[in-house]
Amino acid sequence: MVKYSRQREGILRNLQSRRDHPTADMIYDSVRKEYPNISLGTVYRNLTFLTETGQILKISTQMGADRYDGFIKPHNHFICRECGMVEDMEYISCDEMILQASGLFPGLIEDCELQFFGKCKNCLSGQ
Amino acid sequence: MVKYSRQREGILRNLQSRRDHPTADMIYDSVRKEYPNISLGTVYRNLTFLTETGQILKISTQMGADRYDGFIKPHNHFICRECGMVEDMEYISCDEMILQASGLFPGLIEDCELQFFGKCKNCLSGQ
DNA sequence: TCAATAATAGTAATCGTTACTATTATTAAA
DNA sequence: TTTAATAATAGTAACGATTACTATTATTGA
Q1: B108 to A98: CB separation less than 8 angstroms, yes or no
Q2: pLDDT tens readout for residues A90-110
Q3: Which terminus of chain A has fewer CB atoms gathered within 10 Å of its CB, N or C?
Q4: A105 to chain B: which residues are within 8 Å by CB?
Q5: What is the pTM of this model?
Q6: Are A70 and A16 in contact (CB under 8 A)?
Q7: DSSP state, A65?
């Protein structure tokens, strides 16, 4: 049985109000302004809960800590290999690819993830 | 200046001889049979080197430790959400998608990664 | 054969995350 | 309302994966 918590709501609202794909730690710093006593464990626990209930997205960038995204309309991400910045990109559907792959694979393919890597505008222009 | 090391060669050969996408720790256990004194740090250092020089691939599965792959012909991966198994899949090119995306994005897209998630045959059949 | 230095083994430290526990907050029912 | 059950919390400890450090060993070009 799930009970309401103002901390959880604060975390969700914080994440929905920004588009910078923060880490758990960045969210912690930010939410702490509203709830000075909130603990990092609470942030992690709720990020996991919100991810599992589909209210937010978790992004693994293979560089440093996981990122979170309050914008859940399907879209892709660009990850800068130099500064680690994560930016939204227009959605390119994986549906045909899943279909294509499912015929060849002895298992259940539920979804796929498409991430783009490269250098962002800032890093290209030498900082 | 890069100097030869038998440990590095052992790690590379070990990785090339298997298709199970092992973690650094699994490689360590395995290579230790040939080099009983090899240290985990040496394994990590060389895995990083081999990845950066394009001799192996590093796979982030967003579940547990990173996996490594000695098979570098372009291909995709299926990751089982239940047991974490990583399996090779036929390559589906991202080239058109990179092209498509590049026109819309103010940065340099170098490559993209496509991973499939779901349940493997074993986990589907209830173990 | 030697000198320069890259790579190592072993260990400590770090980072991101999860687990634990006593306390507090929420909620459904009396 | 009060109360009782228990979910969620704060604070902290523990954990797993990875990196950093340092004295020693191995490789290599001269």
Answers
A1: no
A2: 898 889 889 988 988 999 999
A3: N
A4: 78, 87, 89, 116
A5: 0.92
A6: yes
A7: S
Q: Would you say residue B62 has pLDDT above 90?
A: no
**What is the distance, to the nearest Å, from the Cα of residue B119 to the centroid of all Cα atoms in its chain?**
19
Q: Which two tokens stand for residue A124?
A: 């290209």
Residue B48 has pLDDT above 90, yes or no: yes
Strand D: which nucleotides have any atom within 7 A of a protein Cβ? 6-13, 16-21, 26-28
Q: How far apart are CA B100 and CA B27, in angstroms?
A: 38
What is the Cα–Cα distance from B59 to A60, expressed in whole angstroms?
11
Q: Is the CB of B66 under 7 A from strand C?
A: no
Please state the φ and ψ torsions of residue B14, each to the nearest 5 degrees. Answer: -60, -45
* C-beta atoms of B110 and A81 within 8 A: yes
CB-nearest partner of A121 from B106, B112, B117: B106
Test B90 with A104 for CB contact under 8 angstroms. yes
Name residues whose C-beta falls within 8 Å of residue B18's C-beta, 6 or more positions apart in sequence: B70
Report CA dihedral (A53, A56, A57, A63) to the nearest 10 degrees: -120
